[in-house]
Specification:
heterotrimer; A alpha/beta (307); B mainly alpha (190); C alpha+beta (388); A: alpha/beta; Rossmann fold; 2 domains; 9 helices; 13% strand; elongated; B: 190 residues; mainly alpha; 3-stranded parallel beta sheet; two-stranded antiparallel sheet; 5 strands; 44% helix
Chain lengths: 307, 190, 388
């Protein structure tokens, strides 16, 4: 009798633990199945999506932090990650040329700059000389400038597109999502005003690299750019080319990253201060989009006070 | 014997019960044939009569062996047993056509065809063999051969050989020859 | 029965001819009917699974046949502008189709990955395409050409349209699709952009800035570089040269042959169709099932004519058959007499003839049944291979 009773006890204990395991497994599956999988092509979009979606979404972003997302090229496995996402947010304006050369399901692609009035703000940028090699005659591989988010009014539009897409996919969470989006939008509005104030004190700036077109167009300032790399000392030839641009008389050069000491000194001799203005195309080692943009604004303001 | 048109074939048909006389009776083996019904006459023919025709009348789509066994194929009352098949082989061998049983009639010589016809006539152990101009279509060599075959078969199987012919050479050896012309002269109607 | 069998064996050629004739006459009307009915069912199933097809104004039948069954009937091309326009309307989603090229006689269908989700097509071996120049093949294509993931196919030089140039491209096969028992099994699928590369709208070539060869770079100044025909255009896309591939011109002007439109709901579909019919949106929107039903109503009218012809032919065949039998009996009079003489009934030969007829008709019946069975087994394959 006692053996039979013991058997029943063991059976019940096993059943209990088994049902706990099943519940856990089911629960685990539930978590994975309700999260929206969102793939993005650069950091600003990642930031906007994460801020708006938070724990309701799972981000797909296989781009290494030391690569420029605009020029990154995925391999098959990474393309498959994008293919399997629920929504793929692209920047638009030709950002990330790899998109043109891969197969992605069109129904999942959301172009964050396809809103009314946004495409009109695109800045044309010629990347290479005109050439001809066939019946179509002379042509350039000209493109739009694509760091659209640097005009924070465009960044706000991009965030709005992301918000609308997430809400459409997860209407049951609309309230929380809307609250997060509203908070983000307000922050972007504030930054936009502050950046406008910080940039407009001067009529123009030099750009170490042609990535600031939307600062120029968005805030009504002139930015003349060269092709210099942060951390590298410029060559004599590059300096001579720059000397021809000095007639503009600007006294600030914007840099994506910390410039080399020699270059900085050379510029300073000519009365040109180097200011770090990080375009935040990729994930920063510290901080986020908002804090980085705030740092950019603060760097401009600091110069204003110090000059 | 007699020339054409004298009723030789008709006489054989009367013996076989194929035709009935306008008057009188036809008695074969103590059986009044013309008093039998159609079915009884057929049974009588199958059981007692073997036919040999002038033009052999083999069935073209049956092999020689099947031609010989034809009586057993066309009458359900006869049982095609292994004993019958053995008898067929034995008769064929005795008629020197044992090796031709698998051939169709078109592949046989004239003499072979007639011997197949004779074997067919003998397969059911007939009491009477009725041969209608059995050598009519044969060349001289085969005529002699077939004549000898007929006589030997009749002797071996104890059958009465009745033949109608206008071949005088064939008549030698018969116990009785009736000349239709003489018969007519003597006032006996056919 | 033995005699009947021997007779048929002896006259085997005649018997075979008669049996075949009867079998064909028995099989043809119903066999044809089965073929037509099955074709209708398969085509209609496919058509009903496709809500709307948008195309340039023209023959709705050609549009449907081109889009659903990948038979490259001559139709006018749309442009991607229509896709962008319909995507903004908001009544559903577009799946563009560009079917104008072939490889080894199989149609190349340029489309979007959404197509496979729409048709619920799975990969059996390998994976879907990732980059330009890759393709996946239907199960029948794989079987008949003995290809698998990892192999390659070269597109043929010709095309459905009179393009200025068609640039054969070596496409890498990344996967074989699971069988679908549909025209998808007989097609090669690639990304829409890959078909535009075949058309020459996109290409990859050596970087002109890096070339010194004067026979390639004909002239160079600060603003323009002119290259000659010797400039090598890549005819295969790989991870190494993919970055050099680019497209010229405005993508909204790029051609497609049709759009499969998947409406959100019935109301959206109705409204959209109304806009096409009223001319508010140019071009045509067709409901494929309507087109296929209309097509088959015409075919059924033809079939009624064929049925009448078959009845007449069948009657004539029966008469000829009766004549053959009657003549046969006459020719077999000697056989009848021989058997009667030997001891059969007068009706014996007629029994034999009856059995012969019975066996011939029986054999015809069996052959007809076998043909029906084979039709059941292979009619779908036949239809997909030779009809749609």
């Amino acid at each position: 009798m006692s053996i039979t009773r013991n058997k029943w006890v063991v059976f019940l204990i096993i059943s209990f633990f088994y049902s706990c395991y099943e519940k856990k497994a089911e629960g685990g599956n539930d978590d994975q199945s309700t999260k929206l999988k969102i793939a993005v092509v650069n950091y600003p979009l990642l930031f906007f999506a994460q801020t708006i979606g938070q724990e309701d979404i799972e981000i797909v972003y296989p781009i290494p932090s030391d690569e420029d997302p605009a020029y990154w090229n995925p391999v098959s496995d990474q393309i498959a990650e994008f293919q399997n996402a629920d929504i793929i947010f692209i920047n638009g304006a030709g950002y990330a040329r790899w998109i043109d050369n891969v197969s992605l399901p069109a129904s999942k692609i959301v172009n964050t700059t396809s809103g009314v009035g946004v495409e009109e703000k695109f800045q044309v940028m010629n990347e290479g000389p005109a050439h001809s090699h066939g019946p179509e005659g002379e042509h350039t591989h000209s493109e739009y400038a694509f760091t659209t988010w640097l005009d924070l009014s465009i960044a706000k539009s991009q965030a709005e597109v992301i918000y609308e897409a997430i809400v459409e996919a997860m209407p049951e969470n609309e309230q929380e999502i809307s609250e997060r989006y509203t908070s983000l939008r307000d922050q972007l509005d504030l930054l936009h005003k502050e950046l406008d104030d910080a940039l407009k004190v001067r009529k123009g700036y030099y750009g170490s690299h042609p990535v600031y077109q939307y600062l120029a167009s968005g805030y009504g300032v002139e930015i003349v750019s060269v092709h210099w790399e942060p951390g590298e000392n410029i060559t004599t030839e590059q300096w001579h080319e720059f000397e021809e641009l000095m007639d503009h008389g600007f006294n600030i050069m914007l840099w994506e990253g910390e410039p080399g000491m020699k270059t900085k000194a050379l510029l300073k001799e000519k009365g040109i201060e180097s200011v770090l203005f990080n375009p935040t195309a990729n994930k920063p080692p510290e901080g986020d989009f908002i804090t980085i943009m705030r740092s950019n604004i603060d760097a401009l303001k600091f110069l204003e006070f110090s000059q | 014997m007699g020339p054409s048109g004298f009723g030789k074939t008709t006489l054989l048909n009367l013996f076989a019960g194929i035709l009935s006389p306008d008057s009188g009776k036809v008695t074969v083996n103590n059986l009044v044939v013309n008093h039998l019904s159609d079915q009884e006459r057929r049974a009588f023919r199958i059981a007692h009569i073997g036919f040999v025709f002038q033009d052999f009348k083999l069935i073209e789509y049956l092999k020689a062996g099947d031609n010989i066994l034809l009586p057993y194929r066309i009458n359900k009352k006869l049982n095609l047993s292994s004993e019958v098949r053995n008898r067929m082989k034995s008769i064929s061998k005795s008629l020197d056509i044992g090796e031709q049983l698998h051939k169709y009639p078109a592949k046989l010589s004239q003499g072979e065809r007639q011997r197949v016809a004779i074997a067919r006539a003998l397969i059911n152990n007939p009491v009477i063999i009725l041969a209608d101009e059995p050598t009519g279509n044969l060349d001289p060599a085969n005529k002699i051969r077939i004549k000898n075959v007929l006589f030997e078969s009749a002797d071996r199987f104890g059958a009465t050989l009745v033949t109608v012919t206008h071949d005088h050479e064939l008549l030698k050896g018969f116990d009785r020859v009736i000349d239709f012309q003489d018969f007519q002269k003597q006032g006996h109607e056919g | 029965m033995f005699l009947a069998v021997q007779y048929l064996k002896f006259h085997r050629i005649r018997s075979a001819v008669l049996i075949s004739s009867i079998s064909i006459i028995l099989f043809l009307p119903n066999g044809l009917k089965k073929l037509v009915n099955e074709s209708e069912r398969l085509m209609l199933d496919r058509a009903k699974a496709t809500p709307l097809i948008i195309g340039k104004k023209g023959s709705p039948t050609d549009l449907v046949i081109n889009t659903l069954y990948f038979q490259q009937e001559k139709i006018d091309a749309l442009t991607m502008k229509k896709v962008y326009e319909l995507n903004t309307v908001g009544f559903g989603s577009c799946i563009p189709i560009f079917s104008a090229f072939k490889a080894r006689n199989y149609p190349i269908v340029g489309t979007d990955l959404d197509y496979f989700e729409f048709r619920e097509i799975l990969i059996e071996d390998g994976r879907f395409m990732s980059i330009l120049g890759e393709c996946v093949i239907g199960s029948n294509v794989a079987k008949s050409l003995n290809l698998t993931a990892g192999d390659s196919l070269i597109s043929s030089p010709g095309s459905l349209f009179d393009f200025a140039g068609v640039y054969p491209l070596k496409m890498n096969i990344t996967g074989v699709l699971a069988p679908t028992e549909s025209p998808d099994d007989n097609a090669i699928f690639t990304d829409l952009k890959t078909t535009w590369v075949i058309m020459g709208l996109g290409h990859g070539h050596q970087d002109l800035q890096l070339i010194d060869d004067p026979t390639i770079v004909l002239s160079r100044n600060d603003s323009v570089v002119t290259a000659g025909a010797k400039l090598f255009m890549y005819n295969e896309i790989s991870n190494q040269n993919m970055q050099s591939f680019h497209f010229h011109g405005n993508k909204s002007e790029y051609p497609i042959t049709s759009i499969i439109f998947v409406p959100e709901d019935v109301k959206s579909e109705t409204i959209l169709r109304g806009r096409f019919e009223s001319g508010e949106i140019l071009d045509q929107a067709v409901v494929p099932s309507f087109v296929v039903e209309n097509l088959f109503s015409n075919i059924f009218k033809m079939q009624q004519v064929f049925d009448s012809v078959f009845i007449a032919v069948g009657f004539a065949t029966a008469l000829i058959f009766a004549l053959i039998v009657t003549l046969g009996i006459r020719l077999r009079q000697a056989e009848i007499n021989t058997m009667f003489t030997i001891g059969s009934s007068r009706t014996k030969v007629f029994e034999v003839i009856f059995f012969e007829l019975l066996m011939m008709i029986g054999a015809s019946g069996v052959i007809t049944l076998i043909m029906y069975k084979l039709t059941d087994l292979y009619v779908q394959d036949f239809i997909y291979r030779f009809i749609i």
